[in-house]
Write a structure and sequence with these properties.
This is Arsenate reductase ArsC. By secondary structure, the protein is an alpha/beta fold. It has one domain: 3-Layer(aba) Sandwich (Rossmann fold). The protein has 5 helices and 4 strands; from the N terminus they run βαβαβαβαα. Strands 2-1-3-4 form a 4-stranded parallel sheet. α1 links the parallel β1 and β2. The protein is globular and about 45 Å long. The chain starts with 8 loop residues before the first strand and ends with a helix.
Amino acid sequence: MSSNATQPLNVLFLCTHNSARSILAEALLNALGGDRFKAYSAGSSPRDHQQPNPLGLQVLQKAGVPTDGLRSKSWDEFASPDAPQMDLIITVCDNAAGEVCPIWPGHPATAHWGYADPSEGDASDEHKLEAFRQTLLQIKRRLELLINLPADKLAQAMLQTTARDLAKA
């Protein structure tokens, strides 16, 4: 993190399609992180005309988390020179964790926090909605640990270890 304490920590959540888990994490961290964090999300290969999963948006809204401006996008958007520089990049699905990522400007810390895909399978919408709710709770638990860390644990030198330790939480 920069020496300017008012500068938020930029966090990018990655998944394959950027429609469910990474969107939940982006919205949640922006809602919980105050001015200390700025969250973004992207996918390694979002489908053409990909949109955030409607069940994910429904779960966020029901939890009181703003969903304005959420959209599915490619991680290429964040690898360009004029993109915000990331401090931390977290993969939230196993597929994205194994993919060859772009070279990120500034060499941000990276971690993998795996979550099962709540949209997978052919369960009823009711069951999928519950899966989204459970995923949101799991993500929230880790994000609350992250945002409550003391500033020294979020310093650039410590961020890699800290984020990876939270994967075990």
